[in-house]
Specification:
Blueprint lengths: L4 E4 L1 H9 L4 E7 L5 H13 L3 E4 L1 H7 L8 E5 L7 H10 L5 E5 L5 H13 L4 E5 L8 H6 L9 E4 L2 H10 L3 E5 L16 E5 L8 H4 L4 E3 L12 H19 L2
Parallel strand pairs: 2-3, 5-6, 5-9, 6-7, 8-9, 8-10
Antiparallel strand pairs: 1-4, 2-4
Helix pairs in contact: 1-2, 5-9
Length: 249
């Protein structure tokens, strides 16, 4: 399946959640009330599904004017992986673990481009938060050139939990940030490592930066203060390739 599927109607969405379907986001009509809605709202909170309150006109467009009852859900075209299982499997493979964490990256095209580069550079998995992150939808799939079907993607409630889990498995955390004097070329990539890329507008959350093992920035020789996040991620990943496979090989 390469297109994100929209399902509409409160009862249909409740059944989709209870059946274990992976839902990107639920759009709810502003001011929605009623017994069935409260049942859906309870499930949304239990499963920590991203929601957005929208006017009825948007729901009409998403449902193509079918009877949406004030709710439309987008089902993800991929299945997400369990992070702890993925970490253990990667370590057991004997390969040097390499992961990417995305701190609230919101643009689906940037997400797709990162997925594509990650698959090409041997990344073992990409980790995103349940809320506030770009969804894996049809545009993400297209931009990734299908790589989203080939690389494990994990969703976690909080990125901090993922960092704790990685560090407990001796994976070092590297933040790509301008808030450091360290260059990317000062970092040793020949070790288990997870690279954090920040959001397009805010970068990496300061509370996340306090948890990392290393910080590194890219040298910028022009007047523009930063690179596009997907381009910056590509530079970090190919420095990893250079160190692991070119220099050491």
């Amino acid at each position: 399946m390469t297109e994100t599927t929209n399902i509409f109607g409160i009862r249909a969405i409740i059944e989709a959640i209870e059946s274990g379907s992976t839902i990107n986001k639920i759009y709810l009509q502003k001011g929605l009330r009623g017994t069935l809605f409260y049942e859906l709202d309870k499930l949304i909170k239990e499963k920590k599904i991203a929601t957005s309150g929208v006017p009825v006109e948007k729901l009409d467009r998403l449902s193509k004017n079918n009877n949406h009852q004030g709710a439309v859900a987008q089902i993800s075209p991929i299945e997400f992986h369990d992070l702890e299982t993925l970490i253990n499997r990667t370590i057991e493979s004997g390969e040097v673990p390499l992961f990417i964490l995305l701190d609230q990256l919101s643009d689906v095209r940037n997400f797709g481009a990162i997925i594509r580069t990650a698959e090409c550079t041997g990344v073992h998995g990409i980790i995103v938060q349940n809320n506030g992150s770009a969804p894996v939808n049809a545009e993400t799939i297209k931009t990734s050139a299908g790589a989203a079907f080939k690389i494990p993607i994990c969703k976690v409630d909080h990125l901090k939990d993922a960092i704790f889990l990685l560090q407990a498995s001796d994976v070092k955390i590297l933040a790509a940030t301008e808030k450091t004097e360290n260059s990317i070329y000062d970092i040793n990539f020949n070790q288990p490592i997870a690279i954090i890329m920040g959001s397009e507008h805010r970068g990496i959350n300061p509370s996340i930066l306090k948890m990392v093992d290393y910080k590194a920035k890219l040298p910028l020789l022009g007047e523009i203060a930063s690179l596009n996040v997907s381009v910056a991620c590509g530079v970090f990943l190919y420095e990893n390739v250079r160190q692991r496979f070119v220099v050491s090989g």
